[in-house]
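re the bet — no i am not wrong, look at it urself. input seq straight from the record:
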Amino acid sequence: MDSRIESKNEKPRPKETGRPSLRQKHQQKFTRMMNDDNKDAFRNVKQKPGLQTWTINNMQMVPVAPQGFGNFFEGDCYIVLYISQKKGSGQTADIHYWIGNLSSQDEQGAAAIYVTQLDEYLGGSPVQHREVQGNESARFRSYFKNGLIYKKGGVASGFNHVDSNVYNVLRLLHVKGRKNITASEVEVSWNSFNNGDIFLLDIGNAIVQWNGPKSNRREKLKAVLLAQDIRDRERGGRAQIGVVEGEDERGSPELMKIMTAVLGQRTGPLKEAVPDDKPVQVQNTKVRLYHVFETSGNLVVQEVATQPLTQDLLYSSDCYIADQRGSSVMVWKGKQASKEERQEALNRAVGYIKAKNYPSGTSVEVMTEGGESAMFKHLFKSWRDRGQTQGLGTTYSVGKIAKVDQVKFDVMELHARPELAAQQRMVDDASGDVKVWRIENLELAEVNPSTYGQFYGGDCYLVLYTYQRSNQQQYILYMWQGQHATKDEITACAYQAVNIDNKYNGAPVQVRVVMGKEPRHFLAIFKGKLIIFQGGAGRPSVANTDTGARLFQVRGTNELNTKATEVLARTSSLNTNDVFLLKSDHICYLWYGKGCSGDERVMGRAISDVLSKQDKQVVMEDQEPAEFWVALGGKAPYASDKRLEKEEPPHSPRLFECSNQTGQFRMTEVDDFAQSDLDEEDVMLLDTWEEIFLWIGNLANQYETKEAWNSAQEYLRTHPAGRDPDTPIISVKQGYEPPTFTGWFNAWDPHKWSVSLIGSV
């Protein structure tokens, strides 16, 4: 199929559907083979949670036995269906078709057509994925926790992939990878070995694992799990496993005899270590959205927009491609697009990759409107699912007209339901102990408890919050950075935070808070008395010379979500939806906008008593005295639009393994993540959209730990959706995870690391 790409300013051409595409002509080639009898295979598809796999044999789908899951012949193509049960939202399905490097074009074409037919059979809701050997997606790899095995051969070499009782095996597997491993069959010879990787010599009744001298602990553990998996699935558990350390071969004389008998005597040194492949995903800010259609047999791709993308760009009658500059290509099919267009979506993505000269292994996802993947939604500035209900308790930023009513929730549920704690970003009901320090002369200075909750934009503060969970003390250390604080003060704040962290043996969860971006729990611990002064400092030694009128915007409906923020004392700062406090030398006005609620007025009155001991004069919007406007420099237009019922919609959480290899920030996504994916040697990034968690394993190397904060900031800066760079970043150490973190994981085990923690004390 010919392709051409148009700019977004070029007028789109009308769609044509009368002329068959080259893809349709190609499909006719398989019509005889894919008759109604073959479609019986779909009737045996199990529509219940779990994994199902088929391979293409003589253009037909042939089921693969569960013992063979994770084994892929290089000369074959496979179809993998994974159905998962989502809590409260029914089932979701993903269909992958895997292309072996040595598979034929006919097999690839047949697999692609079967995927389209299977998608239709399942109602058109599954997400379709194109997987190429060696470039599999994180989601595909997540189905095979012990790794993928690439086998030589294919249909021509025989189709009985697995026989659990056969020991007539001789193969050498080259094991590579850090988080997700692959094992490729290589020549059974010492020439295949190197010093940096792990090799499994499989002789049927025994599997010998040889660890390269430069391989690490995690790679060795992953290889052992793979060897055990081969033993259990392919040998019915009846095979011996032995391990040889390459740097101490003399310590395993019996195993070396076996290796020598098979491989012969080794002559000469082994090859040096081969670098692992680059991480699965490189975050790419250059996202473009294209409208894709066919005219006169040509594929036309017309640019619609660049990032950050918005959901209203997608029309139900069309199909679109979202391109992350070649790192991934995603196709979105509108529900009202023609059947022909929807069937052609996968093929059009492949045609687009060829037209752009992208690598053949480029990741491809195809999804239908309403069944979008989490990764696709993360490309958009905002995303709202149809029928989505408003969550419990929503935050909003100063200056925005739009806001939503707060929904009360039972704080007692937070301990019993960690998933609720995570969704609400509340570890408890904020009734714990609070201690506040201010940075003065780069040192810690205790703040008088009578002024707790008053923060000045020229200062930095440390707030230590202590609470009880399961009869144990837990700590959160907030680092609040004033907008006008000096770089030295911000640096000193981070340094003093380390000192406090060490004092409590690393137990505190550390949270960076940028002025104006305070998280929910931070608001709650000051019981509705949080006041943020735009300038000046809270230090007695610093004189705050501003004696003019000061204006504060109050937002919140109860003690858990209220704060007052100083804004420019001008009429243009007012907002009809809020409560404002105007404080001058002689009087304090309490201004109620027409759009504020009774609860907001109550909280405004309460916080005004903290701000000023003067008598308060209540002023209703449109009933202001002349002195009010004089104090604000004269009457002028201000935000008086009707309240907008709009909220920041939730996004699915995503987990990444962080890496700064080659000097460029990279991350590898862990799909369908669980607690077991948190490796002690890793620094992991959990993105819940409103917050970023950095989980630091006990064995994470010093460089990764040191760079973790920079990596999180780089992640936000380069996010394709144009994320707020001041999103709270929360540092969590292994073994000290708060419920706001653990609640994003299913069935969290609080005792998983208790043995190692005790051993390290």
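see?? The mean pLDDT is 79. told u. also The first strand starts at residue 2 and ends at 6. so pay up
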